Amino acid sequence: MVTEAFALPDVEHLEIVHDLANAASGAIPRRLGFTEIRREQVTPPAAPSDCGTDVIWRLNRPRSPLSKTPHP
Q1: Is 90 exceeded by the pLDDT of residue 64?
Q2: Cα–Cα distance between 9 and 20 in angstroms, integer?
Q3: Which of 29, 39, 48, 51 is the least crowded, having the fewest Cβ atoms under 10 Å away?
Q4: Which residues pair with 54 in a beta bridge?
Q5: Model-level pTM?
Q6: What is the dihedral of CA 42, 43, 49, 50, to 10 degrees?
Q7: How far apart are CA 25 and CA 55, in angstroms?
Q8: Tens of pLDDT along 2-19?
């Protein structure tokens, strides 16, 4: 899915959001090389088992081997 998303010309980054209480969901972006960028309070929580804190992960578009300028 990551490869397909970055095949689109206007996609500069991808984000994954999950509730902090869902540790298994946090393992996925970590394994894929995403970086945790912030945590946000959500009121009310989306599901009864949620703690109400969303964890946001980001993966920036890889730089082209021919590119001299880094992507933001």
Answers
A1: no
A2: 32
A3: 48
A4: 19, 40
A5: 0.81
A6: 10
A7: 10
A8: 999 999 999 999 999 999
* pLDDT tens-digit series, residues 23-62: 999 999 999 999 999 999 998 888 888 999 999 999 999 8
Distance CA 11, CA 32 (A): 17
Residue 19, H or E segment: strand 13-19
What residue type is 41 in one-letter code? Q
The half-sphere exposure of 1 on its side-chain side, counting CA atoms within 13 A, is 7
Interior angle at CA 49, CA 24 and CA 53, nearest 5: 75
Q: Which two tokens stand for residue 12?
A: 């500069």
Decide if 13 contacts 6 (C-beta within 8 A): no
Residues 6+ apart with CB under 8 A from 15: 56, 57, 58, 59
CB 34 within 8 A of CB 62: no
